[in-house]
Design a protein that fits this description.
Helix content: 55-70%
Largest sheet: 9 strands, mixed
CATH superfamily of the largest domain: Tetratricopeptide repeat domain
Radius of gyration: 33 Å
Structural class: alpha/beta
Shape: elongated
CATH architecture of the largest domain: Alpha Horseshoe
CATH topology of the largest domain: Serine Threonine Protein Phosphatase 5, Tetratricopeptide repeat
């Protein structure tokens, strides 16, 4: 119900008016607090003193409707209109009461009067649009919602409703523009996100639909709305690997994929490439490269640019300045072409390759003296295969240095779990066993705060392992 309106005020100094105003204010206070019986007592006192007090009649009508007394509600509101014929809010409330009575044409007429008498009476336009849409009178509903959006351009809900009508009229490009306007007002408007994704998909713009839904899911994080959008996404695109991975992160603990798919990782980091460094370093206080560099200095000594080094999952090249002093040849591998474009701008690498890490390593036996993987194995659940490939790609006495997130609480089945973030965390004992199975000797395994997550330190492990020297002939 709409309570906006202009209070009737008597000249200053009128004691009777002051008392009546006090009763009205007390009634409003009780009404806002949901104390309908007490509010009615004070409204009635006002009406006993001033029977045609328009605001009191209007709010008494609202109160009666809240108590399920629709006929009495209509009577009070019509008295308010007779007392103040240009009382726009009362016309809106009358329309609301008439809707309850299913007197739709009369309700539409009331809403039109409200809209005429007050240019910013948005609720009347919105409610009129809803009635007209329900009656199938879409062009009229469209006009009502257009008026509402012009009067309240910052309302996501109004833009969304406008977009629904445009879609029903098969004016799809305009419908897309309306839902985009809704999301500019409220980026988390669930219905607008779904409608926009659905429209884009219907228009054959599947990648745009994936971008809209993916951006929303990543931004909304660990929330019920994100879950609802994931489920909608999979109804729209059942085979989409990005949606499948994110849903597994919510519900797939017992059947989590062994690692994030190539498509998921590529999508994730391609979309983050431009602002990745700033977000990771400045906002999340990312420490992975620095933690690894500190530990490498302990075992490698003074850098002498004599090693063949691989930055495994190099991203934009955050590790490059720390690895370059050790390297006669510094290579980087990553799944994201856009990340590699950013790494290339830095000029620190001798070679940059777009490839999946395990396959890349398996194809390069005994090629590297040092393999470093910072914040990459968090997209692997099972580590056995990638560790075996890394061991094969190392020369005897070569080093593997990496970070993983620590699995807290109960040890997860299999030694790793997928988290709602979409990343994996690992139990320390599982990582040790996987390294041993790959023939790598752990020289250091220490806990470290790798980044901040939800304003808390994200604990992980920094690990240095070595491939043993070849047996003496």
């Amino acid at each position: 119900m709409n309570g906006n309106g202009d209070k009737s005020k008597a000249p200053d100094g009128d004691l009777r008016t002051t008392v009546v105003t006090g009763w009205f204010d007390q009634a409003m206070t009780q009404h806002r607090q949901g104390n309908l019986i007490q509010a009615q007592v004070f409204y009635q006192r006002v009406l006993d003193a001033q029977p045609e007090h328009p605001e009191t009649l209007n709010f008494m009508g609202i109160l009666m409707q809240q108590r399920g007394q629709s006929t009495q509600a209509e009577q009070f509101i019509r008295r308010a209109i007779r007392s103040a014929p240009d009382y726009a809010a009362a016309y809106t409330n009358l329309g609301n009461v008439l809707i309850v009575q299913k007197r739709y044409e009369d309700a539409i007429a009331a809403y039109r009067q409200a809209s005429i008498y007050r240019a910013d009476e948005v609720e009347a336009c919105v409610n009129m649009g809803a009635v007209l849409r329900g009656l199938g009178r879409l062009p009229e509903a469209l006009e009502a919602y257009r008026q509402a959006s012009e009067r309240r351009p910052a309302s996501a809900e109004i833009h969304h409703r406008l977009g629904l009508v445009l879609a029903e009229l098969e004016r799809f490009e305009e419908a897309i523009a309306a839902q985009e306007a809704a999301l500019r007002c409220d980026a988390g408007h669930e219905e607008a996100i779904e409608q926009l994704g659905g429209l884009l998909h219907r228009m054959g713009r599947s990648e745009d639909a994936r971008m809209v839904l993916g951006n929303a899911v990543f931004q909304l994080g660990d929330s019920k709305v994100a879950l609802n959008l994931l489920q909608f996404w999979l109804r729209l695109m059942p085979d989409d690997p990005i949606a499948q991975h994110r849903l597994a992160a919510w519900f797939g603990q017992d059947q989590a994929p062994a690692r994030a798919s190539d498509a998921y990782v590529t999508y994730l980091f391609d979309r983050y490439a431009e602002g990745f460094d700033q977000h990771l370093v400045q906002e999340l206080k990312y420490q992975g490269p620095a933690v690894i560099a500190d530990r490498l200095a302990e075992v490698l000594g003074v850098p002498a640019a004599r090693l063949d080094v691989l930055d495994a999952g190099c991203g934009t090249g955050l590790c490059a300045p720390l690895l370059r002093p050790y390297a006669r040849h510094l290579a980087g591998v990553d799944l994201s072409p856009r990340m590699l474009d950013k790494a290339r701008e830095g000029g620190s690498y001798d070679e940059l390759v777009t490839a999946e890490l395990t396959a890349f390593l398996a194809a390069r036996p005994q090629t590297y003296d040092l393999i470093v993987s910072a914040d990459t194995l968090v997209y692997f659940g099972a580590l056995e295969t990638v560790f075996a490939a890394a061991a094969a790609a190392l020369r005897p006495d070569g080093w593997l240095a990496f970070t993983v997130e620590a699995a807290t609480g109960d040890v997860p089945p299999g030694g790793f779990r997928i988290n709602h973030s979409g990343r994996y965390s690992h139990a320390a004992e599982y990582a040790r066993q996987a390294l041993a199975d790959a023939g790598l000797e752990i020289r250091l395994m220490a806990t470290a705060a790798l980044r901040r997550e939800c304003d808390r330190p994200m604990e992980g492990y920094v690990v240095l392992a070595r491939r043993p020297a070849a047996p003496v002939g």
